[in-house]
Design brief:
By secondary structure, the protein is α/β, with parallel strands linked by helices. It has a single domain, classed as Rossmann fold, CATH 3.40.50.10420. It is built from 4 helices and 12 strands. The strands form 3 sheets. It has an 8-stranded mixed β-sheet with strand order 6-3-2-1-7-10-11-12. A two-stranded antiparallel sheet has the order 4-5. Strands 8-9 form a two-stranded antiparallel ribbon. A hairpin with an 8-residue loop joins strand 2 and strand 3. Helix 2 runs parallel beside helix 3. It is globular and about 45 Å long.
């Protein structure tokens, strides 16, 4: 499915609305099964192992649930970090905090660690990102907040060493043939879906 609206902002809002409706239509049982399949695919394709510093996310109800992926990564000895956003409404800053026993909801209703070790985005070994839509070129359509694009903007300054790898985690139906790019977009290296592993052009 191609996206070719002359107004990028209008096109992205329409696409977000369409895909958000499709995600909400997924039943609880189907969501759980898809999340379990995607977690197994991620662990196998990306060789999750002890000592890796992995960022995942606490899923909102419509997103592909990352809980099975978190459980599998921790069972393999990975150190799991969750994103935490700045409490100030005017800020779009995001940091990564090691997952502990206590979680709290942030101002967007997303769970994040109440406390724990903070790690710079540059020192993560692997990052799993939620998304609304994606294509094989590595373009990621998010919710529009720009948190991830800001956190990993430093990757755009590099010509060869694109670390840490950024991997989308999504339903297969969220893939599009081609998305329109915005100047601030940080590209994905790969995407894991409930149907398989997709290496993007940048990866």
């Amino acid at each position: 499915m191609a996206l070719s609206d002359p107004s990028l902002g209008t096109a992205r809002r329409a696409l977000r609305a369409e895909l958000s409706a499709r995600r909400r239509a997924v039943s609880r049982a189907a969501r759980a099964a898809a999340a379990a399949r995607a977690a197994r695919i991620a662990a196998s394709a990306l060789h999750l192992h002890a000592g890796q510093r992995i960022a995942v996310y606490a899923a909102l109800p419509a997103e592909l649930d990352a809980a099975p992926l978190i459980a599998l990564a921790r069972s393999r000895g990975c150190r799991v970090y969750l994103p935490c956003i700045d409490r100030r409404r005017v800020s779009r800053a995001m940091r990564f905090v090691e997952l502990g026993a206590t979680l709290r909801e942030n101002r967007l209703g997303i769970e994040e660690p109440a406390d724990g070790r903070v790690l710079s985005a540059r020192w993560l070994d692997l990052v799993f990102l939620p998304l609304v839509g994606f294509d094989r070129q590595g373009l990621r359509l998010g919710t529009g907040g720009g948190f991830y694009d800001r956190a990993f903007a430093f990757r755009q300054l590099r010509h060869a060493w694109h670390k840490p790898p950024l991997v989308g985690f999504a339903y297969a139906f969220q893939q599009f043939e081609r998305l329109a790019a915005a100047p601030h977009d940080v590209l994905l290296d790969a995407v894991v879906t409930d149907e398989g592993f997709i290496r993007c052009a940048t990866g």
